[in-house]
Amino acid sequence: MLAASAARVCTNDSCPHGKLSSAPQAGTPHMLSTFDHIVLTTADLERCLDFYTRALGMTLENYGANRIALKFGPHKLNVHPPGFDAAIKARIPTPGSLDLCFLADRPLSDVIAHLRSCGVAIEEGPSVRTGARFPIRSVYVRDPDGNLIEISEPAGA
Element (H or E) spanning 58, and its range? Predict the structure, then answer.
């Protein structure tokens, strides 16, 4: 089992960067800079779009040939509804298999009030967790497909 701070860099013994590293080795740049998009597979398109637009405030975007996305800021969730056959996709695209964490643009107390006004049940929280960049204070809800949605603010905010 990997130590919590280690990340797998290479799986090939011949890789010049080694097998395990907690950070890029000197002279080796980070290979990734940010996310471009995430694909969300849904079993019920209308309920999915309602949750992400009404409860989470995302914007619906139609693009390409019958393609759907949900946008917020510079980020995008492409939506694959039932029956959609993407040319390339996850091996087993399954509704309800995601665990997403979003940073809120307002105090968590305002987020909680809004979620409650939309009839969205809070499954857990607020509780303090370890975020990617700093400690976060989070609440957890489920979207209509059962995906776990964590909404956070910096801890101590």
Answer: none
Any domain includes 72: yes
- The per-residue pLDDT for 108 is 96
pLDDT of res. 25: 64
Give the CATH number for residue 113: 3.10.180.10
Enzyme catalytic residues = 150
Cβ atoms within 10 Å, residue 69: 19
Domain limits for position 140: 34-83+95-154
> How many folded domains does the chain comprise?
1
Query: Model confidence over 37-72: pLDDT tens digits?
Result: 999 999 999 999 999 999 999 999 999 888 999 999
Tell me, yes or no, whether 38 lies in a domain: yes
Distance, in Å, from the CA atom of 107 to the CA atom of 11, rounded to the nearest integer, reads 42
